[in-house]
Design brief:
The chain has five helices and no strands. By secondary structure, the chain is mainly α.
Length: 149
C-alpha cells in the first residue's frame, strides 16, 4: 500500500466516522446512549446536577441540529474526496483545508470560552484526523513549480 492510498483511506474513514457521529447525535444525542457526553455537559454547565426538563429538551434540539450539520459537512467532504480530490483538483484540497481550520478555531474558541474543554479535546482529535492526510497529501496537489511572471 502506498502512502497516498493510506492517507486517502484514512481520510475516507475519518469522514465516515464524522458522518456516523453526526447521525448518532441526531438520533441518540440526548439519551442514555450519550451518557458520557451528557455527564460532561452537566459537570461543565450545571455543577454535575441534572438540568431541568426544558434545558434537556433544548439540549436534544441542539444535539439534533449539530448532528445534522456534522452529517452534512462530513458527507460534503466525503463527496469531494471521492470525486475531485482523487482527480487532484486543487480546489478540492482547499475546500476541505480552509473550512476545517475555520471550524476548528471558532468551535474551539467558543468551547474554551465556556470552559467546555472536553469539546476542545474532541475537536482537536477530529481536526488532526482530517488535517494529517491533507498535509501529507498536499504535494500531490501543489507540487508544480510556479511559473515566473
Amino acid at each position: 500500500m502506498t502512502a497516498e492510498k493510506f492517507w486517502i483511506g484514512w481520510l475516507k474513514i475519518t469522514l465516515l466516522i464524522i458522518i456516523m457521529v453526526g447521525i448518532f447525535l441526531v438520533i441518540l444525542g440526548n439519551t442514555v446512549y450519550a451518557d458520557v457526553l451528557n455527564k460532561l455537559l452537566n459537570r461543565t454547565f450545571y455543577s454535575g446536577n441534572i438540568p431541568e426538563k426544558s434545558v434537556l429538551l433544548m439540549r436534544g434540539w441542539l444535539f439534533g441540529v449539530s448532528g445534522a450539520i456534522m452529517t452534512g459537512w462530513g458527507t460534503t467532504m466525503l463527496y469531494i474526496v471521492y470525486h475531485a480530490f482523487l482527480k487532484r483538483e486543487k480546489w478540492s484540497w482547499r475546500s476541505i483545508f480552509y473550512p476545517l481550520i475555520i471550524w476548528y478555531l471558532l468551535d474551539s474558541a467558543v468551547s474554551a470560552y465556556y470552559n467546555a474543554m472536553f469539546n476542545v479535546v474532541i475537536n482537536t482529535v477530529f481536526f488532526l484526523q482530517v488535517m494529517a492526510p491533507l498535509l501529507f497529501l498536499r504535494n500531490q496537489f501543489f507540487s508544480e513549480t510556479k511559473k515566473k511572471s
